[in-house]
Specification:
CATH superfamily of the largest domain: Response regulator
Order of helices and strands: EHEHEHEHEHEEEEHEHHEE
CATH class of the largest domain: Alpha Beta
Number of domains: 2
Strand order of the largest sheet: 2-1-3-4-5
CATH architecture of the largest domain: 3-Layer(aba) Sandwich
Length: about 230
């Protein structure tokens, strides 16, 4: 049974979310501020964390940053803000998804299921992918360029792995969202553009490049084999 940690200082939201998740069979734990969230996350090691952006004391972004230093636990961020900056920063820090307030609790439950489904490990150990001087190890979630490790955020790695498994093929934004974020993801397709920009910076020095196919999407090209 999966344990979900809800972190929010609005008690009515906590109660409503807990009720819907409990009905779906999840064990639910609660924290009302950033420090309590970190303490409980370290103590109970939840399967997933629902993390509000605006918290007393440590805010949600700082909590997310500290959690990512210690764990790959899936994180869904809640935000009452509608501007893209907070969502982009949250994704950059390692959040797996975000939901804007006010939200439909059924939608939040659907996203919890989708994120947990995507994070569930498989039994088969995939082989590393080598494209020129780029090496991607799906099992270890490690990337190397010329034998030197490259640090990638969770979704950056997933996106690069998807490109590598479809080397030379053009993938549109909708397909990339489905493959990387899942069919239940309801976010903005601009998320793809942001993550592609980050990946291009980190692939500097690699023989592989992510090319834009205008009006369609993106593709990964190994220039060594071109």
């Amino acid at each position: 049974m999966s344990t979900v940690l809800i972190v929010d200082d609005e008690k009515n939201i906590v109660q409503l979310t807990r009720m819907y998740l409990t009905k779906e069979g999840y064990t639910v734990e609660v924290a009302y501020d950033g420090k309590e969230a970190l303490d409980k996350a370290r103590q109970i090691k939840p399967s997933l964390i629902i993390l509000d952006l605006m918290l007393p004391g440590l805010d949600g972004l700082e909590v997310c940053k500290q959690l990512r230093r210690e764990s790959d636990v899936p994180i869904i961020m809640l935000t009452a803000r509608t501007d893209d900056v907070d969502r982009i920063v949250g994704l950059e820090l390692g959040a797996d998804d975000y939901v804007c307030k006010p939200f439909n609790p059924r939608e939040l439950v659907a996203r919890v299921k989708a994120v947990l489904r995507r994070s569930r490990p498989t039994d088969r150990v995939p082989e590393p992918i080598v494209l020129g001087n780029l090496r991607i190890d799906p099992a270890r979630r490690e990337v190397e360029i010329n034998g030197k490790p490259v640090s990638l955020r969770a979704k950056e790695f997933d996106l690069l792995l998807t490109f590598a498994r479809n080397e030379g093929l053009v993938l549109d934004r909708e397909r990339l969202l489905n493959l990387v974020w899942g069919y239940d993801y309801l976010g903005d397709s601009r998320t793809i553009d942001v993550h592609v920009t980050w990946l291009r910076e980190k692939l500097n020095g690699s023989t592989c490049r992510i090319q834009t196919v205008w009006g369609v999407g993106y593709k990964l090209v190994n220039q060594e084999g071109a």
